[in-house]
UniProtKB/TrEMBL annotation, chains A, B:
Classification lineage: unclassified sequences, metagenomes, ecological metagenomes
Domain ACT: 353-426
Pfam families recorded: ACT (PF01842), Homoserine_dh (PF00742), NAD_binding_3 (PF03447)
Entry's family note: Belongs to the homoserine dehydrogenase family.
Protein name as it appears in the record: Homoserine dehydrogenase
Gene Ontology terms, MF aspect: homoserine dehydrogenase activity; metal ion binding; NADP binding
EC id: 1.1.1.3
Alphabetical keyword list: Amino-acid biosynthesis, Metal-binding, Methionine biosynthesis, NAD, NADP, Oxidoreductase, Threonine biosynthesis
Source organism of this protein record: freshwater metagenome
BP term (GO), one: threonine biosynthetic process
Signal peptide, first to last residue: none
Cofactor or coenzyme needed: a metal cation
Amino acid sequence: MNSSLPVLKIGMLGCGVVGSQVARLLKDDARELSTRSGAQLVLSKIAVRDMKSKREGLDASLFTLDAQSLVTDPEIDIVIEVMGGIEPARELILQAFAHGKSVVTANKALLATHGSDLYSAADKAGVDLYYEAAVAGAIPILRPLRESLVGDHVKRIMGIVNGTTNYILTKMDEEGRAFNDVLAEAQSLGYAESDPTADIEGFDAAAKAAILAGLAFHTRVTAEDVHREGISSITATDVSVAKSMDHVIKLLAIAELTPDDQISVRVHPALIPRTHPLAAVRDAFNAVFVEAESAGELMFYGRGAGGAPTASAILGDVVAVARHRTVGALGPRESDYADRAIVPIGQTKTKYLIRLNVADKSGVLAAIAQAFATEKVSIQTVRQTGRGAEAELIIVTHNATEAALSSTVKHLTQMEMVRSVESVIRVEGAAQ
Amino acid sequence: MNSSLPVLKIGMLGCGVVGSQVARLLKDDARELSTRSGAQLVLSKIAVRDMKSKREGLDASLFTLDAQSLVTDPEIDIVIEVMGGIEPARELILQAFAHGKSVVTANKALLATHGSDLYSAADKAGVDLYYEAAVAGAIPILRPLRESLVGDHVKRIMGIVNGTTNYILTKMDEEGRAFNDVLAEAQSLGYAESDPTADIEGFDAAAKAAILAGLAFHTRVTAEDVHREGISSITATDVSVAKSMDHVIKLLAIAELTPDDQISVRVHPALIPRTHPLAAVRDAFNAVFVEAESAGELMFYGRGAGGAPTASAILGDVVAVARHRTVGALGPRESDYADRAIVPIGQTKTKYLIRLNVADKSGVLAAIAQAFATEKVSIQTVRQTGRGAEAELIIVTHNATEAALSSTVKHLTQMEMVRSVESVIRVEGAAQ
C-alpha cells in the first residue's frame, strides 16, 4: 500500500463463501486497490455468528460476534454486508448509515423489500449505498443501468438472472432429461440448495427483477410487485416441443414499459427463439438483455453467482465508495421520479403456446379455433399431430392478455373434444 | 426542465449523424435529463464547417463556424466533440480543458493516439474527460472496465468492435459468398464506406483495442502499439473450412496479459469455436468478451455504431459529467500506474490453422510434420483430404509464437511436395 494515502477502515458483516473471497482480495490486492481507490483500504473487523469456523489466511483478531459494535464503531468508514437475509441485516445497515458509514451490499432480498428505506437513510446521512453484486453477480449491470444508460430510455429488460434454474433448463434442453432428475443431480453437485424453493419457484429472480425494474424505470418496485411463476411444472415434453419449434425454454425476469407508460414486471418460464442472444446463455451463466430507445439492443453476460465473481462486484463498489469518501463525492441516489404504475398480471400481454390433447376427428380444429376467437385471442400458428384416436394440437397465439388467455383455457377445458390442456407457456423475444 | 436547478451550457463540435441525434435528445429529453443530472442541460452552441446543410428541428441561431470561440466561451461548461479526426479536434479539446470545460468525445482515433496528453490536460485543469462512445458505440464497456471491474484483474479482452467487418464475415459465413462480393453489397447498402480501408484493414479496431488495453491493464497503449491485420485476404474457402470444423472467422481486437505480465495487443481475423459467446454475434453487432480473475467470463453486446446508439453513450457521459460539475466531483483519471511492456508480435503466442496443398503421395505427412517439429511448433490436429494428385492438408497447431510459425511457413514453402500454402489464420477462444 501507498502509506501517503489516507486510510479507510472497512468492517464486514458475514464471512461465508462471498465474504471470505472479499477478505482475501482486500488482503492480496491491497497495493493495487489503494492505487485505484486513492485510499489504503484496511479490513479491520468482521462480524460473524460463530468464532469456531476455520477461516484460513485471516487473522483471528479480526473477528467479532458483536455486529452491533461494528456498525457503530467510529473508526470504520465502509461497511460490507454479506450476511444475507432481511433481519438483522436491515437494522445493521440502517445503523451503519446513521453512524456515517457508506455501505456495499449483495443483499438482493433486502433491497427488493426495503430498498427505498435504505436509500432514504443513506441520503439523510450523506453516504453511499452500492449493490452491484445483488443482481447477476459479477456482471456489471446496475452501474450501466444507473449511469451509462442514464441519458436513454429503457423500454424492456429480459434477464436470465438465476443460475440454478438456467442450469436445470439447459440440461433438460441438451440432454432431454426430466426436471426432477436434473434437479436431484444439481442438488448432489451442490448447484442447487437442498431446499431449492427460492430458485425453482422464482423468488430469487423476482427480487432481482424488482431491483432492475426500479432502476430502469425510475420507480419504486418491490419483490411483492413482481408476478412470479417457477419452472417446476416444465416437463421434458415442453422442452422438446420448444426444441422442435427452434425455441428454448428459459426462466426470464422481465421488466417492460407498456404502451401507456406503465410497468409490467414478472418472472416466468418462456419460450424464446434459438436465434435470440439469450438462448445461447447456458448452464449457470446469467445474462441481462436490455432494449433502450436510442442504444437499441444490449446484452450483459457472465457469472451470476459464486464467491469470487460476487466478490469482484463488491470490490468494484468498495473502490467507488472509497474514491467518493476521499474526494467528498457521492454516487447516484434513488431515482423514483417517474413513479409509474405497475400493471396487474391479468392485463399483461404476451404470446402464448398452448399444447392440447384433443379427439382426432373432423371439426375439432374449427371448434377450438372458435373458442379462441370467442375469447378474442388471435392465433398465430397451429400444429396438429395425429396419434391414433387423439391428436396433439400446439397453438401459438399473438399477443393476448393473461386474463383473456385464462378465459380461453377455461373454455377449452370445458370442451368435450379437449382431452387435456397439457401446458400453457408464454413466448417472448419474438417479433409480434 | 426544473428551473430551480443550476444551468449547465453545452457546446458541441460537429453536427453529423451522431451530433444531430445528440442535439435532438438534449432537446426532446430536457426534462428527464435535468432530473437525472441535477442540472438544466442547455445546448447553446454548435460549431460546424458549413452553415448551408439543413438541420431539421434545430434553431439556426445555435450554429457557428467559429469552433475556436465555442471552446473558449466562458458561458460554456461542457463540450461534446463529435467532429472526428485528429486535428483540429485535439487542439480544440485542449483549449476547452484550458478554459475549464469538461469534454465528452466519441473520437477513438484521437484517444488512441493522444489519449495521455488529453488526460494530463484534463487533470491539470481539474475537469472531466469521458469517452464511452469511442469504443463499441452504445455498449457500456469503458465504464464497467474503469469502474465495475476496478477491484478485479482483467486477464484478456477479445472484442468484435467493428460492425462493417462483422457484417461482411457474417454474410460470408451464412451465405458462402466471397469477400469482394459482400463488400460491394455492403458499400451499395451504405454499411461500408466507399473507401473501406479503415474498417477492412483493422485500423478502426486497432484504435479501439488500444483504448481497451490501456484501461484494462493500467498502461499507456496507443494505436501504433497494436499489431494489425485486416480481413481482405479471407477467402470463401477459409470460411467454409472454419465452418466444417465448427468454427467461425471473426475480426478480433485482442488485449491480453502474458504469463510474464506483459501486454499483447493485436487485431486480426481468427477462427473461434461456434460455442464461444462471440460466435453468435452477427451482422453489424459488436461485443466485447472479458476474462477477469475473480469475475470470470463476461460479455457486453450491442450496437457498435449508428447515430442514436452512439448518442445514447454520449448522453450517459454528459449526465455523469454534469452531475460531477453540480457536486464538485470528478470521474476516474488516467490509470497508467502498471506501465507494462507491450510484447512484440513475434513473441505473441496463439494457435494457428495452416491450410496446404500438397502432393498426394506417401511420406508427405511425415515430412511436413517433421518441418513443424524442427521449428518447435507442436501440432494439435491434422486433416488430410485427397483430391487426385493433390491433397489438402489442414493443420491446427498448439500455441506457438508468431516467429516460430513464420519460420515454419517459410520452411514449408521451400518443400517441393508443398504445392501452396493456401492460408494461415490464428485460432482463438479455445482450450489450449
